[in-house]
Amino acid sequence: MAQKLVVGNWKLNGSLAANEALIGACGALAGVEMAVCVPFPYLAQAASLLAGVALGAQTVSEFQSGAYTGEVSAEMLAEMGCRYVIVGHSERRALFGEDDAAVGRKAQSVLRAELVPIVCVGESLAEREAGRVMEVVGRQLDAVLASVGVQGLSGVVIAYEPVWAIGTGRAAGADEAQEVHAAIRRWLADHGAPKGIRILYGGSVKADNAATLFAMPDVDGGLIGGASLVAQDFMAICRAAIANGDD
Ligand code: PEP
After folding, report:
1. Where are the domains of the chain?
2. Choice from 59, 125, 160, 205 to test ligand 1 binding pocket (greatest atom count within 8 A of CB)
3. What distance in angstroms lies between residue 225's CA and the mean position of ligand 1's atoms?
4. CB 161 less than 6 A from any atom of ligand 1
5. Atom of ligand 1 nearest to the CA of 161
6. What is the pTM of this model?
7. What is the pLDDT of residues 141-174, one digit of tens each?
8. Which fold has domain 4-229?
């Protein structure tokens, strides 16, 4: 497997001044691929400031153009310099009604624009306690496969983000994460997907737990929310990815 990938998800945070300071303090490091997914209005600013760190967006329309007020297409994101687009984040699913099928269509729209969808999957606490983790994650992945096909899967990054770990300060244990990542790897193999698809872990990754998580064999990097807004924390997480990378 290649270098690890660490992606910051700024969510609904930022200002021109704050972004400039944050990006200025988060320079590219050798030995890890870094990206930041910023709010739409800041794409141009971030594109002009980032050097060696990829740009991404946090959601996208499933449509290419037309009478869809407020929507932003993958083609527009490509034109703004994005490489990555997060789709199916649990906050989009829970707060904005995005269902599995819509997430699949969004992933397909991102691939259509030759960008890389970061497809978020993960179970709620109730689903975990009911022993339904892979039933839920498998259903979410099935919807993506139905939209993008096996070939499309080769262009996708998967982010396993247990809902109970996002923004709670309670990350999955490294073994818990590894177990699900390995199960996702098996799901991919069982469905004929090519090898080498990256599986990121997301959910309360911090400077002090990143190394343990990244040491797991099937954890190919991280999707980082809160800690990506603090330069020294994000950089420490990126350094942990280098230390636990394969090359
Ligand atoms: C996220 O928003 O994808 C996330 C993982 O958030 P946090 O790191 O804050 O839990």
Report:
1. 4-229
2. 205
3. 3
4. yes
5. 5
6. 0.97
7. 999 999 999 999 999 999 999 999 999 999 999 9
8. TIM Barrel (3.20.20)
